[in-house]
Design goal:
- The complex is a heterodimer of chains A (116) and B (112).
- With 116 residues, chain A is an all-beta fold.
- Chain A has no helices and eleven strands.
- In chain A, the strands form two sheets. In chain A, strands 2, 4, 5, 6, 9, 10 and 11 form a seven-stranded mixed β-sheet that branches. In chain A, strands 1-3-8-7 form a four-stranded antiparallel β-sheet, with no helix packed on it.
- Chain B has 112 residues and is mostly beta strands.
- Chain B is globular.
- The chains are: A mainly beta (116), B mainly beta (112).
- Chains A and B meet through β4, β5 and β10 of A and β3, β4 and β8 of B.
Chain lengths: 116, 112
Amino acid sequence: GAGVSQSPRYKVAKRGQDVALRCDPISGHVSLFWYQQALGQGPEFLTYFQNEAQLDKSGLPSDRFFAERPEGSVSTLKIQRTQQEDSAVYLCASSLAFGQLNSPLHFGNGTRLTVT
Amino acid sequence: DAKTTQPNSMESNEEEPVHLPCNHSTISGTDYIHWYRQLPSQGPEYVIHGLTSNVNNRMASLAIAEDRKSSTLILHRATLRDAAVYYCILRPNPLNNYKLTFGKGTLLTVNP
């Protein structure tokens, strides 16, 4: 079946540009996560949605980062005025239900952002 | 969050078993042990999880020490496709702590 889909797969932005990264979760999945992965490191948590509600944005590195999921399905991660340190792979994951014990996370293949 | 310790890298030969260790000495009684793996240029993929008893699925087996301070992911016959970074993660229960916190994991190399 269809997995988590992320677009674009690659994005090159000039420093100072705004970017928008899209995530299509698995249909029916309530929970949605964004992670940031720097080269050679494990993924780092950015933010979490339960349906359309953003319940945790504690991992967003600055106020230049903004995420939304207005209809509880597709989510967009927006980065304003990109900086070189924003270069990373941005991963989206979804899981079936918040309350379902140990529901695994299903990850997309990420968007690789390069800021020049 | 309780932390896990894994070797940075391990090497195996194709069609041989692989035992990937994980230490989690500060695990609490309600923490589940999860394993994910990440193939090159892909997102992480769920492998297996357990609480106290050993677990088997089509991908791997998970052996959990009796004191739960360590666990081992077992790939029974490694293939080239199993070359990946393997993450051992403690997931607290109840699920109001929903985040998965990844470490650096173990880079598994499989030799033909």
